[in-house]
Amino acid sequence: MSERNLICIACPRGCAIKVTLDDNNEVVSVEGATCKNGDTYARNEVTHPMRNLTSTVKVTGGIAPVVPVKTSIDIPKELLFDAMKLINEATLPAPVHIGDIAIKNILGTGADIIATNEAK
Ligand code: SF4
Fold first, then answer.
1. I need a labelling partner for 16 at 20 to 30 A (CA). Which of 32, 38, 54, 67 fits?
2. Cα–Cα distance measured from residue 75 to residue 83, given in angstroms and rounded to the nearest whole number
């Protein structure tokens, strides 16, 4: 048996959660989550943590040098570093519109890297 103590990041309340795992890393209990979202967050965090990634992508041929981007859905936490390498190499041609895709299905995750603002 082992324990993981987490601060829930599913909402600003920041509840302290304790997850108990058995020797096969299966969740035995979740304590301290005051709602279902927190319980789900805690179980996912100790088994397959996911994160939304925000960054910027270079814009070519326009006035703005970069445009803000994010993943369309959460991706596995362990892929964030490799995803950032691809994002740093990517470019979008001006003009960029909200929702334009800089990278489709990044690292086979099913997530697209999409623009979250306009860039001329
Ligand atoms: S457990 Fe629920 S109420 Fe507490 S921080 Fe997480 S989402 Fe918010």
1. 54
2. 9
